[in-house]
Q: What sequence folds into this?
């Protein structure tokens, strides 16, 4: 009798934090890739720096908190928090070394060649440039600065999270034997990139603000001799822990917690690698940092400045032409949106097609005298959101407006507090969701009086109601007036505002109670069909997968012969190619010009395919700790459109990275002799009504399901 596999063995799983580092390595690979335009490579490098900051502030900070608390429970890969830290810190340091190799060896020389010069004050300034820099300091920088000397009467100041600073060793001219430390914050209110004069046509010279300050530091400490000065930067624990049961006013509680981000425990100290050892030691003592959390940098600190450099004028040939989202096929902006939704469900695919229908959906509802009520969830919105303005206008027009504003949306808390207050002043009923759960679902409901009675119109999406990121992230959406979905949408908002859970759902799959079980049943159905000798096929696209119950179900389905393709942008704790476990699973990770954000799930279902989209990844936090919505695409024409999207993504061989067997390493395909296919390019071509390059035969082969094991 064949022994059953134990699918929960730790060696079958990857640690989520180490998998995340691999994800950031994939972005770094795009910065290295000479097939990408130079300024696009620069942008990718900037993204890796921004990502790494958040990783430290949240994920590493969380692990450090666990270590302080004596938490020793291992993760799904069998690693305790202490063991994870020991593995992650060396990898993070090595990753930062790779970042600066790319910056110093690959990008800087190429930027010089195309006429963008990063000037260092102590090496490159001409007499004219030096005069310009010193005048700029005197006029624009000096009035803003606050120099702080540290001695027996002046304690070391609070160094705020993510701020860039200059540390210095100084000696009082009257006390030659006493060496003190001083620090100056590089003001974030001033541009970090400063253009300086150039005598060459077609050449742009830039210098960084910290270099300008460092050059003129003696003007801040007139009675001191400056022995050495170097930039440094701190990263603090920014993870918020909020006891909602004890918080009488959640909004005020979150406001107070936001301030703590500025003085949380220091978990990373970045210093210039040329920093005087005495200064490094003094900073480490003052910030209570050991060698593990010290990062010596060979180049400018905080590479996110490269995103600002990307915006410099005069280098268009080294950037991708900005893509303009196309009108949604079949939609007519001259006609009312509700009339068009009544005629048929409308599928949205951003950013290839416009986000405008979503904006119009709320805007027209706000002005329509027949609309009685609007209900919507908001997780992350833009700084000047037209949707929020429409909701406020709807309330002012006398409509019943209910808005769930998720105050716990990480790093958008402050923004969302502002929106919540503005909406309340306009007369909206603002709610903050369920205690202990983030509301991450993307849903808007419009209730309208019509000749044949009340009709409910619903928008469901995979991404946020954010008109800015809708041009940068790939997301899907559905506009419908399906009665069953409308009934479910009402039940969702009743649950969020009044804790009234329906006994069953018509169409929607809702977390945290029902969604995981439903996904498991869908996976097991493919497994059961495969065991009967039928064809089995699963294709799932998401941001991350690390839920052990879902992964175990996929392993079982793979063992039964189900062919499984996972398109996972970020974290993947599943391993492929393990004999007898995951030999039928392939993991693709697409890192392109747009951030892959949509969640799509396909199940072959013995020749009667089912397609779902939604807001949830296959992660415990999404399935167990958030309010999420996954919805079916049932219109046959629209369903085929979504399937075609998955087919094109699976055919991607230029921007897709593939997880190696029984490993956490990824690699790209060798394209010698093959046609290059980039899914994001294909979607742009299709949206612009050009035929896709990919052949139907290639698509068919990629999507063919496998026949099961017939056990």
A:
């Amino acid at each position: 009798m064949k022994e059953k596999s134990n699918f929960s063995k730790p060696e079958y799983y990857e640690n989520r934090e180490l998998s995340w580092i691999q994800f950031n390595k994939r972005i770094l690979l795009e910065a290295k890739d000479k097939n990408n335009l130079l300024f696009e490579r620069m942008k990718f490098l900037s993204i890796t720096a921004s990502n790494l900051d958040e990783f430290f502030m949240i994920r590493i900070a969380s692990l450090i908190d666990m270590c302080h608390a004596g938490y020793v429970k291992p993760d799904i890969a069998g690693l305790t928090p202490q063991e994870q830290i020991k593995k992650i810190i060396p990898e993070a340091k090595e990753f930062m070394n790779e970042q600066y190799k790319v910056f110093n060896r690959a990008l800087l020389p190429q930027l010089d060649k195309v006429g963008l010069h990063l000037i260092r004050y102590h090496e490159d300034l001409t007499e004219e440039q030096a005069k310009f820099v010193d005048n700029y300091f005197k006029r624009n920088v000096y009035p803003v600065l606050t120099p702080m000397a540290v001695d027996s009467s002046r304690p070391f100041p609070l160094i705020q999270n993510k701020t860039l600073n200059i540390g210095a060793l100084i000696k009082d001219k009257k006390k030659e034997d006493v060496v003190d430390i001083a620090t100056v914050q590089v003001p974030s209110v001033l541009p970090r990139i400063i253009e300086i004069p150039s005598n060459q046509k077609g050449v742009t010279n830039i210098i960084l603000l910290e270099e300008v300050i460092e050059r003129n530091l003696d003007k801040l400490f007139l009675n001191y001799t400056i022995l050495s000065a170097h930039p440094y930067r701190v990263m603090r624990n920014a993870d918020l822990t909020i006891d909602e049961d004890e918080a009488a006013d959640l909004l005020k509680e979150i406001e107070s917690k936001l301030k703590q981000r500025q003085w949380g425990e220091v978990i990373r100290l970045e210093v210039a690698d040329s920093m005087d050892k005495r200064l490094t030691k003094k900073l480490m003592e003052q910030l209570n940092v050991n060698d593990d959390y010290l990062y010596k940098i060979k180049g400018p600190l905080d590479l996110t400045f490269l995103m600002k450099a990307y915006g410099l004028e005069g280098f268009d040939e080294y950037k991708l032409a900005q893509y303009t989202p196309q009108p949604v096929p079949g939609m007519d902006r001259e006609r009312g949106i509700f009339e068009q939704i009544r005629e048929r469900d409308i599928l949205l695919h951003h950013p290839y097609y416009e986000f405008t229908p979503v904006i119009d959906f709320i805007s027209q509802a706000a002005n329509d005298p027949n609309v009685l009520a609007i209900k919507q969830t908001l997780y992350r919105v833009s700084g000047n959101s037209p949707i929020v303005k429409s909701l406020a206008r709807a309330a002012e027009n006398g409509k019943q407006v209910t808005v769930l504003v998720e105050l716990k949306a990480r790093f958008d808390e402050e923004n969302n507090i502002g929106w919540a207050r503005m909406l309340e002043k306009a007369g909206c009923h603002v709610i903050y969701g369920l205690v202990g759960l983030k509301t991450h679902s993307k849903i808007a409901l419009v209730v309208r009086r019509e000749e044949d009675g009340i009709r409910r119109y619903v928008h469901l999406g995979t991404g946020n109601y954010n008109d800015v990121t809708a041009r940068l992230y790939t997301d899907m959406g559905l506009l419908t007036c399906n009665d069953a979905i409308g009934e479910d949408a009402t039940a969702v908002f009743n649950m969020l505002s009044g804790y009234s859970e329906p006994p069953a759902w018509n169409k929607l799959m809702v977390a945290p109670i029902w969604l995981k079980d439903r996904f498991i049943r869908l996976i097991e159905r493919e497994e059961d069909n495969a065991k009967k000798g039928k064809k089995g096929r699963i294709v799932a696209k998401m941001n991350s997968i690390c839920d052990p119950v879902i992964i175990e179900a996929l392993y079982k389905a793979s063992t039964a012969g189900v062919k499984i393709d996972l398109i996972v942008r970020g974290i993947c704790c599943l391993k492929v190619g393990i004999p007898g476990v995951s030999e039928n699973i392939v993991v693709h990770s697409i890192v392109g010009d747009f951030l892959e954000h949509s969640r799509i799930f396909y199940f072959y279902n013995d020749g009667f395919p089912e397609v779902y989209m939604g807001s949830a990844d296959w992660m415990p936090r999404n399935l167990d700790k958030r309010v999420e919505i996954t919805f079916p695409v049932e219109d046959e024409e629209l369903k085929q459109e979504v399937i075609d999207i998955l087919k094109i993504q699976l055919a991607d061989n230029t921007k897709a990275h593939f997880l190696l067997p029984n490993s956490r390493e990824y690699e790209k395909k060798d394209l010698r002799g093959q046609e290059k296919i980039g899914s994001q390019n294909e979607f742009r071509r299709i949206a612009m009504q050009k035929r896709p390059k990919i052949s139907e035969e290639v698509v068919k082969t990629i999507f063919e399901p496998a026949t099961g094991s017939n056990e």
About this structure: Confidence is low (pLDDT under 50) at residues 242-248, 257-262. Residues 81-113 form the longest helix (33 residues). The chain has four domains: 1-106, 114-250+264-289, 337-504, 510-707.
